[in-house]
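Module 6 notes. Inverse folding takes a fixed backbone as the condition and produces residue identities as the prediction. Think of it as a translation problem where the source language is geometry and the target language is the twenty amino acids. Below is one complete input and output pair. Work through it position by position during the lab.
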């Protein structure tokens, strides 16, 4: 195929000789959406293509290469030839075996289990499984799937314009580290009804394209209790966690650097372009771009609630400490940014505070943020803070510190659990004042 413009090519392959001067590829010359396709790098004489995966002749004649191809469409004579369409009636066996995971059947009650980098990489090549349930069972390092120095590249999950992941991916509190890819994110696109939760992507290195995010390129589903670290860069709709958000992002954060080259548009610490909902999130990494640059969200036409940002922000136009540009009636409520660390006194939404103010609970409590230790009010307990030393943090991601406190309610003197050890610290919480340590010998079961 010469030019695939904004289309989708899937479950195809080529083996013929290819030659030309410009935009020459073993499978596709110019492409913006090819997935699950292959070409023979030896017989084609081409080591590169604008889409698809180049394989050796031996790999192209192996049934396991095509296990992600859906339905009884293809047959193959293992080791003797390439796949054929079933209606051709060429001698061979049907390619019927499915991809191999660490267990499970892909249902909500029995999700596919992912233990290794190879199993995770299989997900990206199995279009038929993009509506299934997955559960991560271990921390996974993707450094051997960076596509460099002869190493295989990682298969982005649902990278094509015509395909989206619509299943559930439960990170189970684990991390995926050293994701190195060009464009999009670990997930190219989450469709309506898709869910990614309890997952950390650590030390990502994602460059180029649009939209681009440390976890998700384009989100139409929900992303909950997730975080990203590392470096993300791209041209349009670039975010530390999500590039383009048309869905819901809840209780997430990003600490990595986010950047856009000259003429970039929509670069944000957490989300690039927000047309959906972002709530109870924060970002701390440095953000830079050309136009539409924000510490948390670059361009907002959706809803942003109970969020904050602290990273340095720089750009050419429509630059804001929290939000770079408000578009089409977007709303920003109960949100803050650090005017000192960001270097920005203005934002297209939110309230700017000093570092000292940002590291005390008063302004957040006044805005109605729910502080708690996760035991008093369950899921309603969202934030905790190391008073005077750090910014608010999400309860689900907390590191227990003796100085942390959880006022409930904030308008009376109460005893507050500090850490679940043999002793607790008693905090007196006067109305409209900061907490004062009153005693350090309180039985943790006396509350």
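Target side of the pair, the amino acids:
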């Amino acid at each position: 195929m010469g030019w695939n413009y904004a289309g989708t090519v899937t479950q195809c392959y080529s083996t013929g000789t290819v030659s030309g001067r410009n935009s020459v590829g073993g499978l596709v010359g110019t492409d913006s959406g090819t997935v699950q396709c292959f070409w023979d790098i030896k017989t084609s004489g081409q080591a590169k293509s604008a889409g698809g995966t180049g394989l050796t002749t031996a790999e192209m004649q192996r049934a396991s290469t095509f296990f992600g191809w859906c339905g009884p469409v293809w047959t193959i004579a293992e080791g003797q030839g390439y796949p054929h369409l079933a209606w051709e009636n060429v001698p061979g066996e049907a390619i019927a075996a499915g991809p191999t995971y660490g267990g499970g059947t892909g249902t909500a009650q029995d999700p596919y289990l992912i233990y290794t980098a190879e199993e995770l990489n299989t997900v990206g090549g199995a279009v038929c499984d993009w509506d299934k349930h997955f559960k991560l069972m271990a921390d996974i390092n993707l450094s051997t799937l960076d596509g460099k120095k002869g190493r295989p590249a990682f298969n982005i999950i649902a990278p094509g314009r015509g395909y989206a992941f619509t299943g559930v991916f439960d990170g189970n509190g684990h991390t995926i580290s050293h994701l190195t890819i060009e464009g999009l994110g670990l997930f190219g696109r989450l469709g309506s009804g898709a869910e990614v939760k309890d997952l950390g992507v650590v030390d990502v290195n994602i460059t180029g394209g649009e939209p681009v995010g440390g976890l998700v390129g384009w989100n139409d589903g929900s992303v909950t209790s997730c975080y990203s670290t590392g470096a993300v860069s791209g041209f349009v709709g670039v975010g530390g966690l999500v590039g383009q958000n048309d869905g819901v992002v809840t209780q997430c954060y990003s600490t990595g650097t986010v950047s856009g080259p000259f003429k970039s548009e929509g670069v944000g610490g957490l989300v690039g372009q927000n047309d959906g909902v972002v709530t109870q999130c924060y970002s701390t990494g440095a953000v830079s771009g050309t136009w539409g640059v924000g510490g948390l969200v670059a361009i907002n036409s959706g809803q942003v609630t109970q969020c904050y940002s602290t990273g340095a922000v720089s750009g050419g136009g429509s630059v804001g400490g929290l939000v770079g540009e408000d578009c089409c009636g977007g709303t920003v409520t109960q949100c803050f940014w650090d005017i000192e660390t960001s270097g920005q006194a203005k934002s297209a939404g939110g309230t700017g505070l000093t570092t000292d103010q940002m590291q005390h609970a008063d302004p957040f409590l006044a805005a109605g943020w729910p502080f708690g230790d996760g035991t008093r009010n369950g899921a309603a307990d969202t934030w905790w803070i190391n008073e005077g030393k750090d910014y608010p943090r999400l309860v689900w991601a907390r590191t227990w510190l003796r100085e942390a406190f959880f006022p409930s309610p904030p308008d009376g003197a109460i005893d507050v659990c500090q850490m679940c050890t043999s002793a607790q610290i008693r905090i007196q919480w006067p109305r409209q004042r900061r907490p004062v340590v009153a005693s350090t010998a309180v039985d943790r079961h006396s509350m």
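Reference fact for the lab report: Residues 3-94 form one domain.
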